[in-house]
């Protein structure tokens, strides 16, 4: 089939596009190559995709009025997977306006474009950060998400709500997936694995927040894109729930799906796996928890299994080893 993937030069977007091309699909990528982090890294990912059969990359910001509508009119994709947007919990404290424009205005432009040019399935990336101050775990898709701890999470929650209104009004099959702490090769340099690896290999101390009492549902990127690919064929249908805990809306073809490893890991254990993979011990500075952060995340993933049969299979030890090998090679460390 023909798909549009926004944010195609991003960490997850790159991995998904590569997998879709492996499966013989035609993919149109859209990415603005913004400088939130290294443009060179984004260009290196894109270089891995350039020239592959069935792939074309286009420049553009999703929040540009009319850009997506015109793109859909010309390309007529059957499915859209939307990753483009501004990521990062802590950056949203310093630069909230970029989240407003990229995530909310960009989401609105996407919804308007699909309203004008319908697709078989619209899939949109959200985040586990929307669970905010919830303390009951594991997180289920049907849990309340009324207490976001960061503006980043608030913009993602708002986009989920905007999507529901369009799914209801215009019968657009729509799936939002909530990602849980994705890591792996080609990961963003502002994320903990890259920050830790860089510091360890260069002999600098690493900052360990909440004095190490943090747990994350670390999800290896290859597992995650397998799940996203499988969800493409699981478009929600109004009035047709799947499984006992389906988050399908009672009034719209709109569903939310957790994608996580369903196994929270202590941050210090993750660091330990990275130390073993790099062959060096980290000097750790224990610090208080950061504003906007939460001490733990844990995905309940029975809905994902009901919809796709996909199981997350990569252990932290194996995933971290693969990440560390890529990090050393890419940075020549």
UniProtKB/TrEMBL annotation:
Q: Which domain of life is it from?
A: Bacteria
Decide whether keyword Cell inner membrane is in the record: no
Q: Key word NAD present in the record?
A: yes
The record ties this protein, via InterPro entries, to:
Epimerase_deHydtase, NAD(P)-bd_dom_sf
What Pfam family is a match for this entry?
Epimerase
Show where the NAD-dependent epimerase/dehydratase domain sits. Answer: 4-234
Keyword vocabulary terms for this entry: NAD
Q: What is this protein called?
A: UDP-glucuronate 4-epimerase
């Amino acid at each position: 089939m023909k798909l549009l993937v926004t944010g195609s030069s991003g960490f997850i977007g790159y991995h998904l596009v590569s997998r879709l091309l492996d499966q013989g699909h035609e993919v149109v990528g859209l990415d603005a190559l913004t400088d939130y982090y290294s443009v060179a890294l984004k260009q290196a990912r894109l270089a891995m995709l350039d020239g592959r059969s069935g792939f074309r990359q286009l420049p553009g910001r999703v929040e540009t009025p009319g850009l997506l509508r015109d793109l859909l009119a010309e390309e007529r994709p059957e499915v859209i997977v939307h990753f483009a947007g501004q990521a990062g919990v802590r950056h949203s404290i310093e630069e909230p306006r970029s989240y407003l424009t990229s995530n909310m205005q960009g989401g609105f432009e996407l919804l308007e474009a699909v309203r004008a040019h319908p697709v078989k399935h619209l899939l949109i990336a959200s985040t586990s950060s929307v669970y905010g101050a919830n303390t009951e775990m594991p997180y289920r898709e049907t849990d309340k998400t009324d207490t976001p701890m960061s503006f980043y999470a608030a913009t993602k929650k708002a986009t989920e709500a905007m999507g529901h209104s369009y799914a209801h009004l215009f019968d657009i099959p729509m799936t939002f997936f909530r990602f849980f702490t994705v890591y792996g090769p080609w990961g963003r340099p502002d994320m903990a694995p890259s920050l830790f690896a860089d510091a360890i290999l260069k002999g600098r101390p690493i900052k360990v927040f909440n004095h190490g009492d943090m747990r994350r549902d670390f999800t290896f990127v290859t597992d995650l894109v397998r799940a996203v690919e499988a969800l493409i064929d699981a478009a929600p249908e109004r009035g047709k729930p799947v499984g006992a805990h389906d988050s399908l809306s009672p009034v719209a073809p709109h569903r939310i799906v957790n994608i996580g490893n369903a196994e929270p890991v202590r941050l210090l254990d993750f660091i330990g796996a990275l130390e073993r993979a790099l062959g060096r011990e980290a000097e750790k500075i224990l610090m208080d928890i950061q504003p906007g952060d939460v001490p733990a995340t844990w995905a309940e993933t029975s809905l994902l299994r009901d919809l796709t049969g996909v199981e997350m299979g990569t252990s932290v030890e194996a995933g971290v080893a693969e990440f560390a090998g890529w990090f050393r090679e890419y940075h020549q460390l």
